[in-house]
Write a structure and sequence with these properties.
Helices cover about 30% and strands about 25% of the residues. The chain is of the alpha/beta class. A 5-stranded parallel sheet has the order 3-2-1-7-18. A 5-stranded parallel sheet has the order 9-16-10-11-12. Strands 21-22-25-24-23 form a 5-stranded antiparallel sheet, with helices on both faces. Strand 10, helix 5 (about 160-170) and strand 11 (about 175-180) form a beta-alpha-beta unit. Helix 6 crosses helix 16 (about 545-550). The protein is globular and about 90 Å long. The relative contact order is 0.09. Bound molecules: flavin-adenine dinucleotide. Flavin-adenine dinucleotide binds near residues 8, 11, 13 and 43. InterPro entries: FAD-bd_OxRdtase, FAD/NAD-bd_sf, FAD/NAD-binding_dom, FAD/NAD-linked_Rdtase_dimer_sf, Pyr_nucl-diS_OxRdtase_dimer, Rhodanese-like_dom, Rhodanese-like_dom_sf. This is FAD-dependent oxidoreductase. It comes from Gemmata palustris.
């Protein structure tokens, strides 16, 4: 019978172990985990800090005892694998409690060693009260520090997924929170105008958001800052005293063991694997945050440290070890996060990734309702899709809004995986009744808007092109109703509500191009169709006032 050893007992490792057992009752399966816990929900850690998950036990999805009883899997916690001897197919293991070292033989080895939080290399980084959040132990330390110290102020360094979740949860716990981000926007997987909606939400909730202003160093509190544990000093000299500091600067693949064993790494620093998740040694597989994957849209090597891929890859590695040739498709990086009242989700490539890969794209923005507007509770969401102008193939999608974001991006992620075009997306038959959606679902609408662009029925202009327009050659036309315009307008725009447009065409110049906008782009599309059929040159502002205003 096969002896399968697994290094790392959380997402990818335990998924591999459970699948291996289901495929083979006779295999010997041993999982080595250097921490005290296995199979815990690291994705749930932030929600314990804010009290949303009140019972810590709920985060422990499995225990070694139960894994033994149900799956006959041997789990050795506090056991660190210190070396791999590939020639003789053995690993060295150190028991971290007794210090005792042993050697174990394997037929197949799976590395699911995860990733390590990036630690800022700046003066003062090792002060008490500074934390990263990766493990249950980290969570316990943060929780105890905040409670014991009676912390009132928190600084989160890094506006990534985990940073924003921690910021939200600290706020829920009653702390005054600042978020520090070196880039001009939070959440790099999103394009800037989509992330801008989150900036408004964070600031609206009272979070101090410092963008374009990275961490310079940590300093001792001065006399007037003496109550705080640390002072976060930003690039521009701003001082942010804090009772607790959490850094969320991203992670790097935990590849120490693999490197020492001479396994190949990819250029991103992740362990190199083939589509069957085999490393450069055919008896060693690697999965999860530790590996480099290929981006399905751009073909570029990528690190996608997410729970879904880790779990599926664990399963795939076990399949391949037990004779079912199973391959992992390229990665889409589908991800979602809640930031207070908004949800943001993304799949596929964003504009920056497409540009870096030299892939031509068109973008459309829309702000459809989450369900039928006449049914109570409908809320607008910002939806963006990116597609190839020639083939119409979907390349990426992003959505931000209070409701209905997850299902739209999940449908679009499925469409991407299937290689669908915007025509296919326009035709998807999705479920509809007023409490759930609209007869033309936002996903259908995105496909239809893209179809109109591809067919040349309208040309679009993006939010970031407005400022540079030469107004001697271009007129910006606002076709919203008067009360909407009273709430703000693009400077130097002309106002003719859509309902009056046909009667007032004579007021518009024929020697200048017209850039039409409304609130979301829907009415201005109609305006463009009217104008174009009357011989005017016209472009529609994608996402219109809502996108332009959020991104400004
Ligand atoms: P891990 O789950 O990290 O497991 C690796 C394990 O290997 C670790 O326990 C480590 O101790 C052990 N190990 C490493 N080296 C050795 C060694 N030499 N010997 C023995 N043991 C070793 N993803 C999402 O998709 N959605 C989310 O909402 C989400 N939220 C998250 C929130 C937080 C706070 C964190 C930290 C992560 C979140 N993730 C989320 C990411 C997700 O948890 C990871 O992608 C996933 O856990 C990766 O699985 P893995 O098996 O590769 O690594």
């Amino acid at each position: 019978s096969k002896r399968v050893l697994i290094v790392g007992g959380v997402a990818g490792g335990m998924s591999a172990a459970a699948r291996a057992r289901r495929l083979s009752e006779s295999a010997e399966i041993i999982v080595f985990e250097r921490g005290p816990d296995v199979s815990y929900a690291n994705c749930g850690l932030p929600y314990f800090l804010g009290g949303e998950i009140a019972d810590r036990k709920k985060l422990l999805v499995q225990t070694p005892e139960r894994l033994k009883a149900v799956f006959n899997i041997e789990v050795r916690t506090r056991s660190e694998v210190t070396a791999i001897h590939r020639g003789r197919r053995e690993i060295d293991v150190r028991d971290l409690v007794s210090g005792h070292a042993t050697t174990e033989r394997y037929d197949a080895l799976i590395l699911s060693t995860g990733a390590a939080p990036i630690v800022p290399r700046v003066p003062g980084a090792a002060r008490a009260g500074h934390f990263a959040l990766r493990t249950l132990e980290d969570m316990d330390r943060i929780d105890a520090w905040v409670r014991d110290r009676g912390a009132k102020t928190a600084v989160v360094v890094g506006g990534g997924f985990i940073g924003l979740e921690v910021a939200e949860q600290f706020h829920a716990r009653g702390l005054r929170v600042a978020v520090v981000e070196r880039n001009p926007q939070v959440l790099k997987p999103f394009d800037p105008e989509m992330a801008a909606h989150l900036h408004l939400e964070l600031r609206g909730r009272g979070v101090a958001l410092h963008l374009n202003n990275g961490l310079k160093e940590f300093d001792d509190p001065r006399a007037d800052e003496s109550a705080s544990a640390s002072v976060v000093v930003l690039a521009d000299g701003t001082r942010l005293p804090a009772d607790v500091v959490v850094t969320g600067l991203g992670v790097r693949p935990e590849s120490t063991l693999a490197v020492a064993a001479g396994l190949d790494l990819g250029r991103t620093g992740g362990i190199k694997v083939d589509e069957h998740l085999r490393t450069s040694d055919p008896n060693i597989y690697a999965v999860g945050d530790a590996i480099e994957v290929t981006h399905a849209v751009t073909g570029a090597p990528a690190l996608i440290p997410l729970g879904g891929p880790a779990n599926r890859q664990g399963r795939t590695a076990a399949d391949n070890i037990f004779g079912t040739a199973s391959a992992c498709p390229g990665a889409l990086g589908t991800a979602i996060v809640r930031v207070f009242g908004l949800t943001a989700a993304v799949t596929g490539a964003n504009e920056a990734q497409l540009r870096a890969a030299g892939i031509a794209f068109e973008a459309v923005h829309l702000h459809p309702n989450s369900h039928a507007g006449y049914y109570p509770g409908a809320r607008a969401l910002a939806l963006k899709i990116l597609f190839a102008p020639d083939s119409g193939k979907l390349l990426g999608a992003q959505a931000v809004g209070p409701d209905g974001v997850d299902k739209r991006v999940d449908v679009l992620a499925t469409a991407l995986r299937a290689g669908l075009t915007v025509d296919d997306v326009a035709d998807l038959e999705l479920c509809y009744a007023p409490p759930f959606g609209s007869a033309k679902d936002p996903v259908n609408l995105a496909g239809m808007v893209a179809q109109n662009v591809r067919a040349g029925r309208v040309r679009t202009i993006q939010w970031d092109e407005v400022a540079a327009l030469d107004r001697s050659h271009v007129l910006v036309l606002d076709v919203r109703d008067a009360p909407e315009r009273a709430g703000g307008a693009i400077p130097d725009s002309v106002h003719i509500p859509l309902g009056e447009l046909r009667a007032r065409l004579s007021e518009l110049p024929r020697d200048r191009e017209i850039v039409a906008h409304c609130a979301s782009g829907q009415r201005s599309y109609t305006a463009c169709r009217v104008l174009m059929q009357h011989g005017f040159r016209c472009r529609n502002l994608a996402g219109s006032f809502k996108t332009w205003k959020a991104a400004r």
